[in-house]
Amino acid sequence: MTNLLEALMIICFGLSWPLSIYKSWVSRTAKGKSLTFEVFIWVGYVFGILRKWLQIAEGGAFDWLFYLALAFYVLNITEITVDMLLYVRNRKLDAQEDNKVQKQNIQEPLSTHS
């Protein structure tokens, strides 16, 4: 039962990242996102993957949960990387939009006096 609960937790984490990626892609904004938060999660997965590799190097028999966790750790770190890249893209889009709005605000007062 405990293995099933951990497997469900790993699967739920794995399924949440595609939703975050989709939201980042569609919204085209970094507002409301925290790159620091994602970096900490990314580093956590690096440690988890390193632990699995060290366990493999030590040898031994592993159950299905070990391999499920390793597969999802690799999948999740890949998805988090994609989401972080989208964050960078969206920050650039936010900056472009802010510059566009600033230029409009500067030009509007000038055009009202003509």
Q: What does this 3D model show about the protein?
A:
The chain is mostly helical and 114 residues long. The chain has one domain (2-89). The protein has 3 helices and no strands. It has helices spanning 2-27, 35-58, 64-112. The longest helix is centred in the last third of the chain and has 49 residues, at 64-112. The model has no long low-confidence stretch (mean pLDDT 92).
Helix and strand composition category: mainly alpha
| CA-atom Rg in angstroms | 21 Å
The portion of residues forming beta strands comes to: under 5%
Number of helices: 3
* Helix percent band: over 70%
Transmembrane segments: 6-22, 34-54, 66-88
Keywords: Membrane, Transmembrane, Transmembrane helix
Protein name: PQ-loop repeat-containing protein
Organism: Enterocloster bolteae
Summary?
This is PQ-loop repeat-containing protein. The chain has 114 residues and is an all-alpha fold.
Secondary structure: elements and pairs:
Layout: H1 2-27, H2 35-58, H3 64-112
Helix pairs in contact: 1-3, 2-3
Main features:
mainly alpha; single chain; transmembrane; PQ-loop repeat-containing protein; about 85% helix; 3 helices; transmembrane helix; about 110 residues; membrane
